[in-house]
Automatic annotation (TrEMBL), chains A, B:
GO terms for molecular function: 3'-5' exonuclease activity; DNA binding; DNA-directed DNA polymerase activity. Pfam families: DNA_pol3_beta, DNA_pol3_beta_2, DNA_pol3_beta_3. Forms a ring-shaped head-to-tail homodimer around DNA. Residues 247-367 form the DNA polymerase III beta sliding clamp C-terminal domain. This is Beta sliding clamp. Residues 133-243 form the DNA polymerase III beta sliding clamp central domain. Confers DNA tethering and processivity to DNA polymerases and other proteins. Acts as a clamp, forming a ring around DNA (a reaction catalyzed by the clamp-loading complex) which diffuses in an ATP-independent manner freely and bidirectionally along dsDNA. Initially characterized for its ability to contact the catalytic subunit of DNA polymerase III (Pol III), a complex, multichain enzyme responsible for most of the replicative synthesis in bacteria; Pol III exhibits 3'-5' exonuclease proofreading activity. Belongs to the beta sliding clamp family. Signal peptide: none annotated. It is found in: Cytoplasm.
Amino acid sequence: MKFICEKSKLQDAISIAQKAITGKSTMPILEGVYLNAKDSKLTLIGSDVDVSIETIIDSEVIEPGSIVVDAKIFGEIIRKLPNDLVTIETLGVEEGNNIIQITCKKSVFNLVHMNPSDFPELPAINETKLFSIPQNLLKNMIKGTSFAIAQDETRPILQGILFEVNNSYLNLVALDGYRLATRSELIDSENTISSVIPGKTLNEVAKILEDSEDVVDITFTTNHILFNLGETKVISRLLEGEFIKYKSLLPQEYKGLVTVNRQDLQNCIERASLMAKEGNTNLIKFELVGDTLIITSNSQLGKVREEVGVNLQGDEIQIAFNSRYLIDVLKVMDSDEVMLELTSSVSPCVIRSNETDNSKYLVLPVRLAR
Amino acid sequence: MKFICEKSKLQDAISIAQKAITGKSTMPILEGVYLNAKDSKLTLIGSDVDVSIETIIDSEVIEPGSIVVDAKIFGEIIRKLPNDLVTIETLGVEEGNNIIQITCKKSVFNLVHMNPSDFPELPAINETKLFSIPQNLLKNMIKGTSFAIAQDETRPILQGILFEVNNSYLNLVALDGYRLATRSELIDSENTISSVIPGKTLNEVAKILEDSEDVVDITFTTNHILFNLGETKVISRLLEGEFIKYKSLLPQEYKGLVTVNRQDLQNCIERASLMAKEGNTNLIKFELVGDTLIITSNSQLGKVREEVGVNLQGDEIQIAFNSRYLIDVLKVMDSDEVMLELTSSVSPCVIRSNETDNSKYLVLPVRLAR
């Protein structure tokens, strides 16, 4: 194998393929990145058990072939090379077995490589796209829901995000026992799908997705999802099992509707939670008095009282929250104003934007001892 | 006590005083910042056993007084407040003992405070300045030497930097068993001083010093050094004991003089050391062949060969180094070109700038087994 390519392009490609390489596998081959040079293209693949990422760059291929090299050291070498053309070739047996040479200007590296036939094959996917969505929109939907993925491993299905396609809408839903996040966007698809994708895969996908309107094509099989970004493809295993019927968790009505500036509310909650760290409860109390929301918290350290002006329609409700759950929601919302739908001190609070219908968040209150 | 001051000024002042607060003390009072309001000024002091930092800001003092508050939570509260005037006052006993109230717009915090009489007094220092030096220059001298401070605790004196005033020069010197760094600048002082200041103090001082030509006045007593920056004063204990007679360690002559572009050399060494991490030895070899410096390294991972063009006067010497020690030196040097003075494969290498005489670095080679 021998090929020549630009250092910067190779560096970017390694960084993409590496996102699949967790280093936690027990198979040493999965710490490697697979390189295939053929037909003026260099294909790089990184993989662990759950997810594989393939990316393709232009390359001058002098002798086609495949190798697998340790992704970490290979990535570090390429990153440190000067910004010039890089030549990579396998050496003959007289130089020792399984050696590649990396040359760039006056730098020459000899590096051990692994056997490419040991590298797992990508799952076969019949690439009929089911729907397309702009990359920036999907990225936003993932970021807007992934914070609510369950962190504990007792219910594995909740460590993923539900991708639900229904009536020309794509809904992303994540929930743990305390909050729920859902984002919904219109797409051009007549299909009906309900699949759960591991959260860690989606966090890596979000890093690869660009802030552009270029689309990503999405294909599902029984066991896998394929994100096709053109030069880059991400294939992930789906989570097995059925997701919680989340729609029944969302209240259909409310007794008090609070409209408030999002940043003001977030600032007040963040300050109030400084006093709520004692015992790691993050407990803060909301009290509505006319068009004022009073937020209080106290602990051994002292106490705090915050006031923020709101528009209240309906009941003056008192309710307590874990401040972290509210901050997580407010951070991922984009709108200047947010609306809180409240019913009682023991009913879930629904938070949504007043501008669009695309985000809906639910946070459970903390029941206070009487 | 009651005073009013600007949030941003108070925040900056806390951040300065906090640099003395390590949180490692067994005395809870030393986790606090001392506040004194008097004569339109607010004085803040942070302290641990070795170092104290005092800083003064303008304040509207309504009722003079002193308190000590937990520096971490107080700093967090002030940082999160809106950018406006902050009022801080002690409350009467009916609100509970030892409570201060912090008010800013619609935010009200009640916070426990500690007894200011428990806070240690600053060491008395007769403030006759011994010499002055521009802040940016001293900052640079500290950064140019502190990397060579010994990390192990077997010789405590080497955990400090020698401040030597002699013949109108200020010399800063740090060394461990493997390398030595010295920076020297002309100052206006007829005194002769030789004192060793703890490295961790100086790292905090370097953070407080500004990138400006404004001077810092320096005063020594038998046991302390005082850095006076005007609004801010840093007082540090000196290290006890005698510093190593470093001048005898610096070779007076050499057999080969290598002049090389600093960044080129650093890049080559950084690449070569990628292959030198095996067993954590960082071993790289230098070979001079005419006007070429060949740098090689190898390990179980593979091997690397780098070439960099140099100007060589004298002998073609071969020598091996721990790459980290060379990189540390090259990183803190400012000049485009550096000079390496070499004598043999077992003699120390002296690295200096070709433009000024103010920096001199010494790195011991690694002796290779034959």
